[in-house]
Amino acid sequence: MADFGATELDTFRAETRAWLEANCPPSMRTPMTDEKEAPWGGRKAEWKNPDAKLWLERMADKGWTAPMWPKQYGGGGLSKAQNKVLEQELRRIKARPALMSFGVWMLGPVLLEYATEEQKQRFLPGIVRGETRWCQGYSEPGAGSDLASLQTKCEEVKDENGGDHWLINGQKVWTSYADQADWIFCLVRTDTSKKHEGISFVLFDMTSPGVEARPIKLISGSSPFCETFFDNVKVPKEQLVGKVNGGWEIAKRLLQYERQNISASGFGGGAGLDVVEAAKTHVGVDDQGRIADGDLRARIAAHKMDAHAFLLTVRRAEAESKTGSGPSAAVSIIKYAAAKMNQERTELLVEALGLQGLGWEGEGFTPDEIAALRAMLRAKGNSIEGGTSEVNLNVVAKRVLGLLDHQ
């Protein structure tokens, strides 16, 4: 859709503002205080706050959970300019996200590029409405940074009725929320004689016989990741996206969307406390009202400046990606920076809290203080998930700076 002129955009802004005021519940204009409030949707969704379900339904009816997707697939059909207005108006009222979804952030964009029309009609509307929760089957015990070494096997098999299907055997690891997901988008090996050219991209239901997800407990105490096992899992032939052995191109494209999303969110955790206020409370202030510890004060100030510059860079990169053909390899720069900055932020917060930053549970510590420590521990994984920092630096060197490997 072509962007509107100024007058049309002013009208759209007024209509959007009025609609949001009428339809966004007051409780959806406050920060989330518990990760269980996150609106992931799906068949297993539990709504701690009924308003969250209502907010999702209203936004999905407008197509605004995926505002720039085509209307024929349930999206909002908005132009870039209209989408920017919507984002501004959502920020203005401090609205919570109506839907958090790997389907919206990662799978949907590549389906729009690579899927058949039948696949788009089948899968995209359920993503928009939050009816299907997806997980990502990429990493394996022996294929993490070198993802193309994956060994999960996918064979074409004839059944007793003369039809054929895919038969999948293997294991994935670090599968985020696999135990809560309804479906998985999965990289599988359809040709053992080739590496990158022997990989395909398939979709299948997590309730299929032979699928098992086992949560992995992290050092932070949570279990968002899983080991996922496939034992003779039957998958209909029409659920392969793109070409047989053509999955690596789709995989790389999806990773760009994943890293763009991680970069835009800047990770999270421990957001209930501001590092400056925490330092003033627990470290103290000098006679000018500044954080008393000069070294800590300087490091916090430097971090705050970096964070602001990072936010501006992310917004510029988002605008550039919407004027071209989607995210580029440059998102690896932002993903690397996001991981580094979130680790720095959570470490500074725990340092600022002093002894109050050492509380795991129990009396004497507030929920925010406990969350700060757990967030710091959880942040250690930021430089691994979504592509390790080392891999992202290699992408930057090769694809952004144009450097070549030493021969």
TrEMBL record:
One of its GO terms (cellular component) is plasma membrane. Its cofactor is FAD. Keywords: FAD, Flavoprotein, Oxidoreductase. It comes from the Bacteria. InterPro entries: Acyl-CoA_Oxase/DH_mid-dom, Acyl-CoA_Oxase/DH_mid-dom_sf, AcylCo_DH-like_C, AcylCo_DH/oxidase_C, AcylCoA_DH/ox_N, AcylCoA_DH/ox_N_sf, AcylCoA_DH/oxidase_NM_dom_sf, Mycobact_Acyl-CoA_DH. Residues 24-44 are annotated as: Disordered. Pfam families: Acyl-CoA_dh_1 (PF00441), Acyl-CoA_dh_M (PF02770), Acyl-CoA_dh_N (PF02771). This is Acyl-CoA dehydrogenase. GO terms for molecular function: flavin adenine dinucleotide binding; oxidoreductase activity, acting on the CH-CH group of donors. Belongs to the acyl-CoA dehydrogenase family. Residues 9-131 form the Acyl-CoA dehydrogenase/oxidase N-terminal domain. Gene3D superfamilies: Acyl-CoA dehydrogenase/oxidase, N-terminal domain (1.10.540.10), Butyryl-CoA Dehydrogenase, subunit A, domain 2 (2.40.110.10), Butyryl-CoA Dehydrogenase, subunit A, domain 3 (1.20.140.10). Residues 135-233 form the Acyl-CoA oxidase/dehydrogenase middle domain. The lineage of its organism: Bacteria, Pseudomonadati, Pseudomonadota, Alphaproteobacteria, Caulobacterales.
